[in-house]
Amino acid sequence: VIITQGQYVASAVKQDQYPEADLPEIVFIGRSNVGKSSLINSLTRVNNLARVSSQPGKTQTINFFEVGVKIAEVEERKAFYLVDLPGYGYAKTGKEKRKIWSKFIEEYLLNSPRLTFVCQLIDSRHEPMASDVEMFNWLVDNGIPVLIIATKVDKIGKNERAKNIAAIKRKLGIKEISVLPYSSLKNEGRSDLLDVIGDSLLE
Ligand code: GTP
Ligand code: MG
């Protein structure tokens, strides 16, 4: 799977702001600062396509990026949206604002007819937090397909990686399902994720 283009399309906090094109959507969700926006830049290889910050709470709207791919195995071109969401589990902006966020994010996740699957990102350095487990269960309960991605694996060693990925599976209760390790810094996991995306677009 080869990315042929990536561009910013729209930001939304309500339904009439969603983009109009009828394209499948692949969504990135996770705690603030886990690396959602960085992963979008790494995947598309377009620097600064999604805005990144070392301060949590950078992304505050639902951001749509149109991506074109060529799936070499079947000689097909496809277009889809990568969707960057604001992080959850970040207290600093105050309760009121967080509540509004979760409401428009929830509205989006429950009502988008073109949602293909959600990538839930979890920091590979720590055990999943309560908010991660809650989000995972909420997605599963609502019938939304989820791929778990362990981020920032460049920051830990091989042993720790195996141990922490096992802990993620244990905490989420997903023994059989695999967790995809990713490093946006080193582009590790990129081709694996592109394969998953390619398969989902051909279904
Ligand atoms: P919000 O928009 O606040 O929800 O955060 P986000 O999940 O979009 O995180 P973002 O991509 O902005 O990255 C947060 C910080 O983590 C930045 O300082 C990134 O440079 C850093 N970061 C992201 N991915 C990686 C990675 O794979 N490796 C390393 N070492 N740092 C990373
Ligand atoms: Mg972000």
UniProtKB/TrEMBL annotation:
Gene field: engB
Keyword terms, alphabetized: Cell cycle, Cell division, GTP-binding, Magnesium, Metal-binding, Nucleotide-binding, Septation
PROSITE patterns assigned to the protein according to its UniProt record, in alphabetical order: G_ENGB (PS51706)
InterPro entries linked to this entry: G_ENGB_dom, GTP-bd, GTP-bd_ribosome_bio_YsxC, P-loop_NTPase, Small_GTP-bd
Cofactors: Mg(2+)
Family the entry assigns: Belongs to the TRAFAC class TrmE-Era-EngA-EngB-Septin-like GTPase superfamily. EngB GTPase family.
Protein name, entry field: Probable GTP-binding protein EngB
Entry's Gene Ontology molecular function annotations: GTP binding; metal ion binding
Listed Pfam families: MMR_HSR1
GO biological process: division septum assembly
Residue span(s) of domain EngB-type G: 22-203
Function: Necessary for normal cell division and for the maintenance of normal septation.
